[in-house]
Design a protein that fits this description.
Layout lengths: L1 E4 L4 E5 L9 E5 L2 E5 L2 H5 L7 E2 L1 H10 L13 E2 L4 E6 L2 E6 L13 H19 L6 E4 L4 H12 L6 E7 L7 H11 L2 E7 L1 H14 L9 H12 L4 E3 L4 H4 L4 H12 L4 H8 L15 H13 L5 H6 L4 H7 L10 H4 L1 H9 L5 H27 L4 E3 L5 H9 L6 E2 L2 E2 L1 H6 L6 H4 L10 H6 L3 H7 L2 H7 L4 H13 L5 H17 L2 E2 L2
Parallel strand pairs: 5-16, 9-10, 9-12, 10-11, 12-13
Antiparallel strand pairs: 1-2, 2-7, 3-4, 3-6, 7-8, 14-15
Helix pairs in contact: 3-17, 4-5, 6-7, 6-24, 7-16, 9-11, 15-16
């Protein structure tokens, strides 16, 4: 929303601290337009919306267009924790809050854990206030189980919980959700889908997105939102915990990379790294060879780029081959990944691993996780609330030393220790699993006709952006199993689906 002062001819607005809702805006022909969905701007007659190559290059690297940029050249995204002031035709933005830097503390682990528990319980209680039916998203992971447990402790009636599962055993986690539901006596709703159903749903879902976003878990997230909305209007979830508590394996990879780089260069290059070629490749949940190759790229990257290197879909080297006419000089690391460098340097004086937490929250969580959840829930008019992003809780957690979050190789160390009694043993001991789907196999199977159509020579030549020969080589390498190109091909396919739906104009 925005507040207008007609006498002063001023408009002021702000975006919430973590960007759970979008704020897109453009100034054209002396008029200011803003909305939470780009599709609304696209419906305004006479508004110019064109796509620049550099936006597409950033998308292919990040799997989304990082804030404050937009897929459209004329539109900007207001950053989280920023106010916007429009006066005399000029737009000014200013940051009103930021995450505090980790600091030394005299508080012992037990005291810190008690405060974490108190603040999280308080955050959950505040978000249970609702005049419409309310429930919890229960994946069976650490975060959603803790939220569910705290809800159950503070409710006189059984909590309604929701999960989905898959017929394919290697991707199904519904048994963990059932274990948590049984522990807390919830009214549990579960729906089992096949991966094929997800594959069929993906093209339609991607076409509905305002911007291309290549997180393939948009399909199961959407299926879950649809299931939840059949019963309740508001649901609490566990978003934010992975970023603030070192839940991703990339945090461990970052810490290991710092140690790995102390190994003599000759030993790394001539003995350790050649061994990666002996590792097995897989189209399943984990591809060992791809995982190690990604780690080595991250280890070789500068501190500021390591997080993004571990997440990058299409590297600068790949894009140099993919584009017919790449924008001159833009694929240099410092330019392509400039948004990441700027965020990394905001926490001046913090240690590199501490800065990685900030980058995760301000970039990956913002433009991938929260955007995905918001878009998928809004498809079905479902409101999702995130207790882990409560301001008072974040202010406390962000200040804690990294060692209380990533303790050796233990992720979410203090969180799990402080609330261990809320976690059933089967969940407390399990490894983290994301909302994963078999993208590598789909590209070779159900989605192959779509790959051949939208990444085929005819479509590419009509589009005029990419080198058909380079794209063909990527497709053939993946289909034959000689290389795992799932991230690059999926990111390209999502772009093509979005392009086919929107048919945007390209900046000359």
């Amino acid at each position: 929303c925005a507040i207008g002062d007609a006498r002063a001819e001023t408009i002021m607005s702000a975006r919430n601290r973590f960007g759970k809702k979008h704020f897109d805006y453009t100034m054209q022909q002396g008029r200011f337009y803003f909305d939470s969905e780009l599709s609304a701007l696209a419906e305004i007659p006479g508004l110019v919306l064109t796509v620049a190559r550099r936006s597409l290059m950033r998308y292919l690297a990040y799997e989304y267009v990082p804030t404050p940029e937009c897929i459209y050249e004329q539109v900007r995204k207001l950053e989280p924790s920023y106010t916007l002031m429009l006066h005399d035709g000029l737009v000014q933005t200013r940051r009103y809050w930021d995450m505090p830097v980790p600091e030394a503390t005299q508080m012992d682990e037990n005291t810190a854990g008690e405060e974490v528990r108190r603040l999280l319980a308080q955050a959950v209680k505040k978000r249970m206030v609702s005049d419409v039916p309310l429930g919890a998203l229960l994946s069976g992971g650490i975060d959603s189980t803790l939220v569910t447990g705290l809800m159950a402790q503070q409710s006189d009636d059984p909590i309604e919980t929701f999960s989905i599962g898959f017929t394919e055993a290697s991707y199904d986690e519904s048994r963990y959700a059932r274990a948590a539901a049984d522990t807390y006596g919830t009214i549990h709703h579960e729906r089992i889908f096949s991966a094929d159903e997800c594959a069929l749903l993906l093209p339609e879902l991607i076409a509905r997105l305002d911007e291309p976003m290549a997180d393939a878990s948009v399909a199961p997230t959407s299926l879950l939102a649809r299931t939840v909305r059949e019963h309740v209007t508001v649901a609490l979830g566990g978003d934010g915990a992975d970023e603030l508590w070192a839940g991703y394996e990339h945090y461990i990879a970052y810490a290991i990379a710092q140690r790995y780089n102390r190994v003599p260069h000759v030993l790394r290059k001539n003995m350790i790294e050649p061994l990666t070629r002996c590792l097995p490749a897989s189209a399943g949940y984990v591809n060992p060879r791809l995982a190690v190759e990604t780690f080595l790229r991250g280890a070789a990257a500068p501190d500021w780029l390591r997080v993004q290197t571990l997440l990058t879909a299409c590297t600068p080297e790949m894009q140099q081959e993919m584009w017919l006419e790449p924008e001159a000089g833009f694929l240099a690391q410092e330019r392509l990944f400039a948004p990441t460098k700027e965020l990394f340097e905001r926490w001046d004086g913090a240690a590199p691993l501490e800065r990685a937490f900030y980058v995760y929250v301000r970039q990956y969580m913002l433009d991938d996780i929260l955007t995905k959840v918001d878009r998928c829930s809004m498809f079905y008019s479902l409101e999702v609330r995130a207790p882990f992003l409560d301001t008072e809780l974040v202010d406390f957690v962000a200040r804690l030393p990294v060692s209380l979050k990533l303790h050796g190789f233990q992720r979410k160390y203090l969180l799990k220790k402080a609330l261990a009694d809320l976690l059933p043993p089967v969940i407390r001991k399990r490894n983290k699993r994301g909302f994963q789907i078999p993208v590598a196999a789909w590209l070779r199977g159900q989605l192959r006709p779509l790959v051949e159509e939208l990444l085929g020579e005819s479509f590419l030549r009509e589009q005029g952006l990419f080198n058909p020969r380079a794209i063909r080589q990527m497709i053939d390498a993946h289909m034959s199993g000689t290389a795992d190109m799932r991230k690059a091909l999926w990111t390209l396919l999502v772009l093509q689906l979005w392009w086919q739906k929107n048919r945007p104009s390209l900046v000359a």
